[in-house]
Amino acid sequence: MKYQDSIKQANNLLSLTIKQLELWRLAATPINYAVGYEFVANNNKALTTAIKYQLSVGKKLDNFYIEAVYQQFVLGQSKFRDDMLTDFDELISSVEENTHQSTSSVDGFISALDININELKSHNEEKVSAAFNNIAKASLKFKTQQQQLTEQLHDCQKQSKILRDELKDVRKEIYLDPLTGLHNRKAMSKHIEAWFKENPNKDIAAIVINIEQYSQVTQRFGSLIGDVLLTKIASKIESYVDDSGLPIRTGGDEFLILLPEIDKEIAREIGEKIRQGVGKLRFISSKSGIRLPQMTVAVGINQFKVSQNVNAVIEKTRRTL
To answer: Model pTM?
Structure first.
């Protein structure tokens, strides 16, 4: 229920949302409900357009897609990014001001020395004494200003650490799949762009992995059990990828591994190891003790230049599963 909706409007939208989720064949989870509510309320044009396009091209609305829509169009990440930019602007301004103050205090101290240094050479004791006093005052003022600047810089350091930690969380939110912790499509695009800048002719091996029994398991045991199995399988898949490789969750039950500068035959060996490794996994419900079905994956291998259309390559690789 939105704050601007009346009770009658909210009840009507609630009913329409439940019907919409039934039409989409989605469970009434909090995320699914939030997206469904926005869709039937028709207040979020971007969200509505994205869902209508997904349906128009014949693709289903699964939990994976709905969660991506929720992250992008409901959570309002753009406002959070705006807040982050504002914090950075303030931090940069503070550092610039501190630098300016430090330069001014140094210039002031040097100027005081220049003015009084000649007086120290005088044979007039009063002038020498006054010069010493002036230098002592300038030195004290300089030390005080430097102490204040040190405290301000310390505050800047604390603020920058907080911002770095927040940025780390934002990067996770933007580039990682929240369920499995693997990279998402945005991360894939970012890496492809970086590889292209390095070398447009860079060879990339692609391994597409599809869980064969996933839909049957979720229908029989529920989406929560399905999520647990998905997480375990994702962890097993990731264990076969080193730092140079990129493991990605590209769909509800689909994963992609991109391996730069790896031969197709080596990628085939890695894919076979993943297939065997997942096949050896055994799942037992901790509550009921029921042994869950053995999970297997289908694997497709391909190789392409980073300058090629990645989505077309992925689609072609799917057909080799």
So the answer is: 0.62
